[in-house]
């Protein structure tokens, strides 16, 4: 069991470090998602709250993955640190899911529009903006996948320290009820 924990720890550190280039690249791409159309003006990521949120979460996830990888390398594992990693991993995963969902919805609307409310698609006019936002979102989803994987690893680390509940037969339970 100790070998499994060591392999899992190495894999977790590798995944945490893998998030760095993905999240940083996603942040750079979304921050460069600006475009100008002579016919319709300009569009900037900073004016769209979902893309500002995506940028913020990318920065948070990159910083957290760097710090947590360093702590995993240099700290001795104990129950408190395992719970801390587990809870913080879950928090960052939820932030990443919400930010990617909001950005994906806006990117979908930019590509497809919404005829019911008379919104036309804008990617044919702001192609550079849409392509950079799409690349940023793809990189963000890859970072999210890494986060989900090492969140599962940290959950395994936490919950493997507990004994499974004991299984009693129905006859034992019936015999104890009369007492």
Characteristic terms for this protein:
179 residues, mainly alpha, 2 strands
List the helices and strands and how they pair.
Blueprint lengths: L1 H30 L2 E4 L3 E4 L4 H26 L4 H34 L14 H33 L10 H8 L2
Antiparallel strand pairs: 1-2
Helix pairs in contact: 1-2, 1-4, 2-3, 3-4
Family: Belongs to the Casparian strip membrane proteins (CASP) family.
InterPro entries: CASP/CASPL, CASP_dom
Subunit structure: Homodimer and heterodimers.
Characterize the structure shown.
The chain has one domain. It has a two-stranded antiparallel sheet with strand order 1-2. It is elongated, with a radius of gyration of 23 Å. The mean pLDDT is 84. The protein is built from five helices and two strands, in the order αββαααα. It has 179 residues and is mainly alpha-helical. The longest helix has 34 residues, at 79-112. This is CASP-like protein. Residues 9-146 form the Casparian strip membrane protein domain. The chain crosses the membrane at residues 6-30, 51-75, 137-159. It is a multi-pass membrane protein.
How many domains, in number, for the residues?
1
Order of helices and strands: HEEHHHH
Characterize the main sheet. 2 strands, antiparallel
The computed structural class is mainly alpha
Distance N to C terminus? 40 Å
Strand order of the largest sheet: 1-2
- The overall pLDDT average reads 84
What share of the residues does DSSP label as strand, in percent? under 5%
**Low confidence ranges:** none
What is the number of helical segments per DSSP (H or I, 4+ residues)?
Answer: 5
Shape: elongated
Q: Any idea what the radius of gyration is?
A: 23 Å
Estimated helix fraction: over 70%
Total E-strand runs:
2
Protein name: CASP-like protein
Keywords: Cell membrane, Membrane, Transmembrane, Transmembrane helix
Family: Belongs to the Casparian strip membrane proteins (CASP) family.
Main location: membrane
